[in-house]
């Protein structure tokens, strides 16, 4: 069973279609790279896979339909850090990495 499976993923900003019928599987231990020119939909696809955006099509994570998963469940398996964020501009590397651990921890960190 694939760790991540996308079938027929499509997305549009208003009338502008950005993604059309994207399908792939990703098994545990595999690495997937997204390559393309600016404006080709790479970030939009990542936001769709993390359910930040609501695409058409199916996305399954570890065999579960992501529509049936809560945000905390998704966040424990997928982390998204935007390229440009005012919040992270003054954060240390440790604080930035710690943000990805937030779904697994409380707000305080022990040694």
CATH architecture heading of the domain at 4-77: 3-Layer(aba) Sandwich
- Distance N to C terminus: 37 Å
In one word, what is the shape? globular
CATH fold-level assignment of the domain at 4-77: Rossmann fold
**Would you report the number of β strands?**
4
Question: Can you put this structure into words, describing what you see?
Answer:
By secondary structure, this protein is α+β, with helices and mostly antiparallel strands. It has a domain at 4-77: Rossmann fold (3-Layer(aba) Sandwich). 20% of the residues lie in helices and 26% in strands. A 4-stranded antiparallel sheet has the order 2-1-3-4, covered by helices on one side. The longest helix is centred in the C-terminal third of the chain and has 9 residues, at 93-101. The protein starts with a strand and ends in a 10-residue tail after the last helix. The model has no long low-confidence stretch (mean pLDDT 84).
């Amino acid at each position: 069973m694939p760790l991540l499976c996308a079938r027929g993923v499509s997305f549009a900003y208003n009338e502008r279609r950005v993604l059309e019928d994207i399908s792939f599987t990703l098994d545990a231990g595999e690495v997937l790279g997204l390559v393309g020119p600016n404006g080709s939909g790479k970030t939009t696809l990542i936001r769709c896979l993390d359910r930040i955006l609501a695409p058409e099509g199916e996305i399954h994570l570890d065999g579960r339909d992501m529509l049936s998963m809560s945000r905390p469940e998704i966040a424990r398996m997928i982390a998204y850090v935007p390229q440009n964020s005012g919040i992270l501009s003054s954060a240390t590397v440790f604080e930035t990495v710690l943000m990805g651990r937030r779904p697994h921890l409380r707000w305080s960190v022990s040694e």
